[in-house]
Amino acid sequence: MSATAPSPRYDMAVVRGFALSTLLWGVVGMLVGLIAALQLVWPALNFPPYLTFGRIRPLHTNAVIFGFTLGAVFTGSYYGVQRLCRVRMFSDTLSRINLWGWNAIIVAAALTFLTGNAGPKEYAELEWPIDVAIAVVWVVYAVNFFGTIARRREKGMYVAIWFWIATILTIAMLHIFNSLALPVSLWKSYSIYSGIHDANIQWWYGHNAVGFLLTTPILGLMYYFLPKQAGRPIYSHRLSIVHFWSLIFIYMWAGPHHLIYSPLPDWAQTLGTGFSIMLILPSWGGMLNGLLTLRGAWDKLRTDPILKMMAVGITFYGMSTFEGPMMAVKTVNSLSHFTNWTIGHVHSGALGWVALTCFATLYYVIPRLWHTTLYSVRLAELHFWVATLGLVLYVTSMWISGVTQGLMWRAVNPDGSLAYTFIESVAAIRIYDGIRAAGGALFLSGALVMVYNVIQTIRQGSVEVPETAPAGALPVAGGR
Amino acid sequence: MAWNWHRPLEAKGLTFSVLTFLAVAVGGLVLLIPPYFLQGSIDPIEGVHPYTALELEGRDVYVREGCVNCHSQMVRPFKTETDRYGPYSLAGEGIYDRPFLYGSRRTGPDLARVGGKYPDSWHWLHFRDPREIEPRSHMPAYAFLGEQALDLSLAERKLAVLRRLGHPYTDAEVTGAVADAEAQAARIAASLRKDGVQLGDVEARSEAIALIAYVQRLGSDLGWRQAAPTAAAPAPAVAQTAAAAEGAR
Q1: Nearest CA in chain B to A429
Q2: How confident is the model over B111-153, as pLDDT tens digits?
Q3: Is residue A163 part of a domain?
Q4: In terms of DSSP H, where are the helices of A180-304?
Q5: Which of residues 135-194 of A touch B (CB under 8 A)?
Q6: Is the residue at B238 inside a domain?
């Protein structure tokens, strides 16, 4: 193989593009999150009209979900699907449209949040022109992905592909139905649903955005990159089958747990609670399949920070998928809902499971994409420990403040009157808001260490395949 | 180890994808379709009526500033919640809320029942600087809302679009949207001036006025609070705060 080969077997340019944009949006999204956290401690850090908590909080969530997480999913799935199908992407043009179109959408989204041209439905705040663009680019990704599968030179589809298929189909359905609105102008529209119906649709979307943006495609990353990094096959194919079908089926029923004690009909709330509890089983099936894959490879964790991130990520997946169903129980929800406990729960999943798995994916692919080795394993090790410390500070402070606030809201004096005013519950948790910001700052600084490590790795590497290609850089064509 | 029955499916991309889609579609069909048709899901409530043109503009300011990120509008059926805020939320209240604004985090208090709780002048001062009223508050200061004239250029169109979605606005309400909004803004400005707030021309038709119209409307359809908000005499303490704050400016 030479650098002048006319048609490289796989298209890695699109993967390089997404790897870099993922890192960029990760840093931007986490920085904005840190600013928002600091604004809660020091309100003077709000700079109206553009930089107020109300405008930058959705910028934070959208940048980390759609820019960072989904960027990592594009990176990992474009990298993995070509290898799993033993064929180049269906269309290089569609790959370019996906890369540039998606990043243009994130830029447009960021601008519309700062200028206040966005709606209030969580993780679906964007106005209709951007919603249309998202649908178009998503279809481009789908055509490219399914086209690649259709032309595959491998008989069976590996389990990672199943999870990416489920992601593509489900997100298309959720996005389209939740975003339906009648425009008033270019940047203003009204939802075609109102009140409780709108709430029902929104949390069908919102819960399953967690399910099919932050869970299934990340499981796809786990199923592809964990066996690669550990050098072990997946523990159980049977467990993969059971956990895939039960997870995607059960997930879709759990949305109403966001609307417990709301005016949503009781039967729907109860279904949401019931299916949330059932969800523990497939979730833990996935966790066990991941952790047991490490059997015989645990010693590698001592020296391999990428494997450490994967193992801790899977562990946090297990913890947050146990915590979530507990919070869907009415008795617990009556305490936890509307408090920081929810924020802690989300970040135990988002920082612990999602971000660590995405970091591990990037650490795996970037040296291979630039045909070199990682610049510094020690810096990756530092990243892992700083991120884990930040994560623990973040989650524990939010648990304590959430329970504190929930208990203060329901506390009564002996005569039955309310024991605390609302502002007392605000003042009581300010210290925890500060600890949370410190945890977030640590997590962000870990990401910055990674950026330095990646820049140095790219500087010592090359886009072109070196004459003496390292093993595994580009698999040789043909031959099963 | 492996289940052989599943192997053929793993080799059929299209069949696999169709089955995957069916598996994810069932939950949505069961949870989303019946509430639209089942009797009793939404009991109509007498007194619930669409927002006025100015209230709607205020609601859009509330949406634009992301107030929902910190303020819920959903009172749960617990005694400690109804004691703190007012009657618990009902499905029938939300039929003119597009989109809904339940929120999911109470960084600040719930606002579903805030209409009529405070005089207009309280809100004016509170938007300008929440810490003038509550030093421990960590809400951003929204002084610019009071300095920025409300843009009514889309007011008529907004009502027309909502009428197409089923909100019962009359022709006169749609075509008179701008005039109605200006008249309601003038009434709120008058109540602010009565409380000692000095308003210039722009301030008297600012976005803050529309936001006051909206928050004073919240929960008022139920008629559970006795005093009408705008007509209510301000508490002496608030009047003094208003005067002092104006003096300090």
Answers
A1: B107
A2: 999 999 999 999 999 999 999 999 999 999 999 999 999 999 9
A3: yes
A4: 195-213, 216-230, 237-251, 266-278, 280-293
A5: 146, 149-150, 152, 155-157, 162, 165-166, 169-170, 173, 177, 182-185, 188, 190-194
A6: yes
